[in-house]
């Protein structure tokens, strides 16, 4: 009897080994994602969240981390007013240097405000109060119902959202972005 390895060319053997290594790598990546999500879920469970809520918050954090999702506060009218006030105070001084310092301070404040990027995971975990987290969970429960995902099955959610090209991934990502944009007044 001839062994399978002796029938295959060296190139075919390498491809065979490569595909089994790729499959093992994908399984390891999925296992790592599930362990990260489980760790996050435990954190939310310790804060009093039920299984579905903790899973949705954990998967939100996991997805935000995996796609490097960052947000910053949108400038408000009060920010512009403060910058204009600093510039105006500087402009009202009789010394040219005072005017320049006032304008520079106003511009520096606006630049500082625009540079306050924070990871979405950090915002979900510690930058949102319980009511805001509840609003996010409610929005994501609706998404799960539309996509037939069980919010109590963490591993299934991680598997469904692990494929970045899937419709579910796109909808979940869009839901997170829209929540931050419209509920928290932040921009990506």
Q: Care to describe what's here?
A:
The radius of gyration is 25 Å and the shape is elongated. It is 76% helix and 4% strand. Helix 2 (10-45) packs across helix 8 (154-162) and helix 3 (51-66) packs across helix 7 (130-146). It contains 9 helices and 3 strands. The chain has a 3-stranded antiparallel sheet with strand order 2-1-3. It has 188 residues and is mainly alpha-helical. It has one domain (9-72, 119-187). It has helices at residues 4-7, 10-45, 51-66, 77-92, 96-114, 120-127, 130-146, 154-162, 167-183; strands at residues 70-73, 118-119, 186-187.
Based on the model shown, name its key terms:
single chain, 188 residues, mainly alpha, elongated, disordered N terminus
By secondary-structure content and strand pairing, the structural class works out as mainly alpha
| Average pLDDT, all residues | 80
Q: What does the main sheet amount to?
A: 3 strands, antiparallel
Number of strands: 3
> How large is the share of residues in beta strands?
under 5%
Order of helices and strands: HHHEHHEHHHHE
* Contiguous helical run count: 9
Question: What is the C-alpha radius of gyration, as a whole number of Å?
Answer: 25 Å
Distance between the termini: 62 Å
Flag low-confidence runs: 1-11
Set down the secondary structure blueprint.
Layout lengths: L3 H4 L2 H36 L5 H16 L3 E4 L3 H16 L3 H19 L3 E2 H8 L2 H17 L7 H9 L4 H17 L2 E2 L1
Antiparallel strand pairs: 1-2, 1-3
Helix pairs in contact: 2-3, 2-8, 3-6, 3-7, 3-8, 4-5, 7-9
């Amino acid at each position: 009897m001839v062994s399978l390895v002796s029938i295959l060319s060296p190139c075919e053997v390498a491809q065979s080994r490569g595909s089994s290594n790729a499959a093992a790598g994908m399984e390891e990546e999925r296992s790592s994602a599930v362990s990260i999500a489980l760790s996050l879920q435990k954190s939310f469970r310790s804060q009093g969240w039920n299984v579905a809520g903790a899973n949705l918050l954990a998967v939100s954090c996991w997805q935000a981390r995996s796609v490097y999702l960052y947000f910053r506060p949108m400038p408000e009218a009060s920010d512009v007013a403060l910058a204009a006030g600093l510039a105006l105070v500087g402009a009202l001084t009789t010394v040219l240097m005072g005017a320049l310092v006032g304008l520079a301070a106003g511009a520096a404040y606006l630049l500082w405000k625009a540079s306050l990027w924070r990871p979405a995971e950090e915002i979900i975990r510690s930058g949102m109060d319980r009511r805001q987290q509840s609003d996010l969970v409610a929005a994501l429960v609706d998404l799960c119902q539309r996509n037939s995902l069980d919010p109590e099955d963490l591993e299934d959610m991680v598997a469904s959202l692990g494929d970045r090209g899937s419709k579910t991934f796109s909808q979940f990502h869009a839901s997170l972005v829209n929540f931050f944009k419209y509920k928290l007044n932040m921009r990506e």
